[in-house]
C-alpha cells in the first residue's frame, strides 16, 4: 500500500488556448498567457503541489517558452512547485536550459522543477536548426551533458551534436539541487535511460488502460537496481476534466477532446475519436472525467494498483471555456486531491 502522506498531485497544461465564454471565440495569445498565470496562482492557492507547463510551437497552443511563464509565476506564487511537462531538450541547448532553470529556481526560492523529454511533436527541430533524423541521438547526448551540468562543478565536455566545453562553470549556480525528471511516453529505452541517470520518471499515459504501464514501473525498478541508482517514486500524467457533475464534465470533455483528436487525424494519422472510444477512455482508460468524487475514485484506484506516487492531471485539453478551467483547478485542489488521499488512507481501491 502506498503512503498517502507522501503523494504529489500536479496540474499540467500544454497551453491550449481557451475560449471566451462571452464571445465563443478563442482568446488572443496575450490574454491566454495572462490567463495561464492566473491559473497557476489559483492552483497555488488551492494547495496543488505542482504546476507544470508543456512546450509547443503550434498555433493552437500559447506556451512555446514555458520557463518564461514559470519565471512570471515564481514571483506571484508561494508554495507550488513550478515545472515543465516537458522541456524538449533535444532541440534546446542544455547550457541555456540550465541557466534558465537556475534563474527560476532562485526567483522561486527553490521551487523550480524540470521534466526533460523528446517531445511528441517535432516542429521545434527545424525551428532551432536541428535535424529531426537525429531525434534519438540528440536527446541521448543532451541528457548526458545536462546531467554533468547538474553537478554544479566546472564541466569539461567533448560534444558531437552539442558544443564542447573546457572547464566551464555555469552561472547562476543552483543552491541545492534542481529537481529533474524524465518524461516517458512508453518506450522501454526511455525507462532504462531514466533509471541509468538516477532521475525520477513520469509516465505520459494519454490513452488506453493505465494498468498496462505497470510493466514500465517494474522495468524502472529493475533497471535502477542493476545500475545502482535510486528508485524514485514514479509519476503519471493523464488528461482529465473535473466539473460539478459527471454529466457536465463528460459534455466538456467530449466537445473539446474530440475537437483536438479530429484536428490531429490528418496530420498524425491517429484514429478518429468515436463516442464509444471516448466512453471507454472515461470508464476504463486514461481519461479522468467526472465529478470530484468520480475522478478521485478512479485516481485512487489507479494509484493504488500501480504504485504511482505522483499524479499530474492534464487540464484544458482542446482549449475549453476559461471559466470551466478555473472551476476545474478549484475542484481539483479543494475536493479531488483531499478525497484521493482519504481513499488511499483507508485502502479503498474499488470505488
Automatic annotation (TrEMBL):
| GO molecular function annotations of the record | monooxygenase activity; oxidoreductase activity, acting on paired donors, with incorporation or reduction of molecular oxygen
Q: Which Gene3D superfamilies match?
A: Luciferase-like domain
Q: Which residues form a coiled coil?
A: none
Superkingdom classification of source: Bacteria
Q: InterPro entries attached here?
A: Bact_Lucif_Oxidored, Luciferase-like_dom, Luciferase-like_sf
Residues annotated as domain Luciferase-like: 25-309
Where does the record locate the signal sequence feature? Answer: none
Per UniProt, the keywords (alphabetical) are: Monooxygenase, Oxidoreductase
Against Pfam families, the record matches this protein to: Bac_luciferase (PF00296)
One GO cellular component assignment for this chain's record is: cytosol
What protein name does the entry list? LLM class flavin-dependent oxidoreductase
- The organism named in the record is Tetragenococcus osmophilus
Amino acid at each position: 500500500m502506498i503512503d498517502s502522506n507522501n503523494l504529489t498531485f500536479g496540474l499540467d497544461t500544454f497551453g491550449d488556448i481557451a475560449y471566451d465564454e462571452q464571445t465563443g471565440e478563442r482568446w488572443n495569445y496575450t490574454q491566454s498567457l495572462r490567463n495561464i498565470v492566473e491559473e497557476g496562482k489559483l492552483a497555488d492557492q488551492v494547495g496543488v503541489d505542482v504546476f507544470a507547463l508543456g512546450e509547443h510551437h503550434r498555433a493552437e497552443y500559447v506556451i512555446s517558452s514555458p520557463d518564461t511563464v514559470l519565471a512570471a509565476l515564481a514571483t506571484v506564487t508561494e508554495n507550488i512547485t513550478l515545472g515543465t511537462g516537458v522541456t524538449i531538450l533535444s532541440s534546446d541547448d542544455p547550457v541555456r536550459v540550465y541557466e534558465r532553470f537556475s534563474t527560476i529556481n532562485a526567483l522561486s526560492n527553490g521551487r523550480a522543477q524540470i521534466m526533460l523529454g523528446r517531445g511528441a511533436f517535432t516542429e521545434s527541430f527545424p525551428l532551432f536548426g536541428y535535424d529531426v533524423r537525429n531525434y534519438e541521438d540528440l536527446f541521448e547526448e543532451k541528457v548526458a551533458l545536462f546531467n554533468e551540468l547538474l553537478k554544479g562543478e566546472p564541466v569539461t565536455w567533448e560534444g558531437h551534436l552539442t558544443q564542447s566545453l573546457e572547464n566551464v562553470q555555469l552561472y547562476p549556480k543552483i543552491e541545492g539541487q534542481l529537481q529533474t525528471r524524465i518524461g516517458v511516453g512508453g518506450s522501454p529505452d526511455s525507462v532504462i535511460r531514466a533509471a541509468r541517470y538516477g532521475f525520477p520518471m513520469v509516465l505520459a499515459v494519454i490513452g488506453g488502460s493505465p494498468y498496462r504501464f505497470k510493466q514500465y514501473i517494474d522495468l524502472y525498478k529493475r533497471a535502477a537496481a542493476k545500475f545502482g541508482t535510486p528508485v524514485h517514486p514514479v509519476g503519471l500524467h493523464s488528461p482529465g476534466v473535473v466539473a460539478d457533475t459527471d454529466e457536465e464534465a463528460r459534455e466538456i470533455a467530449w466537445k473539446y477532446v474530440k475537437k483536438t483528436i479530429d484536428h490531429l487525424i490528418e496530420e498524425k494519422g491517429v484514429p478518429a475519436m468515436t463516442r464509444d472510444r471516448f466512453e471507454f477512455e472515461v470508464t476504463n482508460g486514461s481519461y479522468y472525467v467526472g465529478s470530484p468524487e468520480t475522478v478521485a475514485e478512479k485516481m485512487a484506484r489507479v494509484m493504488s494498483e500501480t504504485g504511482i506516487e505522483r499524479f499530474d492531471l492534464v487540464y484544458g485539453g482542446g482549449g475549453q471555456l476559461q471559466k470551466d478551467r478555473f472551476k476545474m483547478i478549484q475542484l481539483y485542489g479543494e475536493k479531488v486531491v483531499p478525497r484521493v488521499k482519504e481513499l488511499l488512507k483507508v485502502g479503498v481501491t474499488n470505488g
